[in-house]
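Sat 14:20. Reprocessing the chain from the morning session after the first attempt stalled halfway. Input below, unchanged.
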Amino acid sequence: MRLIMALLRLLVNSGKNCYIFDMKKMPIAVFTFSLLLVFSSCGQSDSSGFSVGVFVPGFIEGSPTYELMASGVQRAVDERPGTNLVFIEAGFNQSQWEESMMTMAASGQHDIIVSSNPAMPDIVRRVLEEHPQQHFLLLDAEMPGEKTVHSVAYSHFEQGFLNGYAAGLISKSNMQNANEGVRVGLIAGQEYPAMNTQIKAGFISGARQANPRASLDFRVVGSWNDPAKAAELSRSMISNGADVILTICGGGNQGVIATAREAGAYVSWFDISGYDYAPDVIVASTYVLQDTAVYDTLLKAIDGELTFGESETFGVKEGYIGFDYSHPVFVKNVPGDIREAIISMEQHLRGDK
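Finished this time. C-alpha cells:
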C-alpha cells in the first residue's frame, strides 16, 4: 500500500479526469506498473466517456512544441464534457519511448493516443503489430495508409525557407552584428529525415533567395538537452563567420542564445514565436499553430468524424505556418525594408499575390 500511495503521489491531478505523469522520477519498471494503476483509475472515473491519452516524447514544460500540443488537446477535451485525458511525459531517453507507448496501448484504456514527433511512426508501427486496434493521432509526422492512424505533417520546407530568407536578408544587412559575406548557421539536436530533407533544405534555399552567395554552416549536437555542447558548436559557427543561427536543439537552445549574446550574433527561432526568450538576440521567428491543428483534428476524433488511414499536410497556405512579423521586438530591431520583404515573401507563399 505504501508503494501504491507513493506512486500515486507522483501523479499530478490537473483537473477532473486528467493526469500528468512524469517519468523522470522513476525507472521504467516502476513506470510501467504505475501506468497500469493510472489507466485503471481513469477507466473507472467515467467508463462511458471518450478517452484521450497524450504521449509526450520528452517533457511538456520548456518545450514549445509539446506545450502547444498539450494546450490544443486540453482545449478540445474541455469542449467535450466527460472526455477522459491522461498526459504521459516519457522523458528524453528515447530507448524507453517504445516500451512506454506499448504499455499505453496494452492498457486498452484510450480510444486514441495523441503524440508529436517525427520518430513516432516507426514506434507506432511496432506497437500496432501487438495492438492493431489502437487508434493514434500523430502530429508533425507522416504515416499514411495505416487504418487506425491519422497523421498531420507540416510543411517544414516552407517554414525553414522563411527562417532562411529572413536570415539571408539580415546577414547581408547593415545591422550591428551582421558580418561581411552571407553565412548563416543551423544547429540541430539530432539528424532526422525532416531535418535533412525539409528544414535544412528549406533554410539554405531561403537564404539563397535573399542572396545567391549565401552559405550554410550546419552542426548537430547529438542530443536534445545539452546546452553546453550547443554553446560550443555555436561558438565555432560564429568564429567561422555565421552571424544568424537557426537553433532547433531543444534544451540546447539556451546555450546558443548565451553564445550569441556573448559573441555578437543573432538567433532565429522555430515552431513558436520566440522573441520574448531573448529580445536582444532573437531577430526572426516562425511558428506552427500546432495547438490549432491538434484541437481541430482531435475534436473530429472525439465526435467520430475523423478519417483514419490518412495523412494531412498543413503549410503557409493553410494558415498553420507563418512568420511572426508583428511582434514588437521584431518591429523594433529589424529594419523596415527587411520586414517588408519578409511579409511580401510570406504573402507570396500563401498565394495572396
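The first strand starts at residue 11 and ends at 15.
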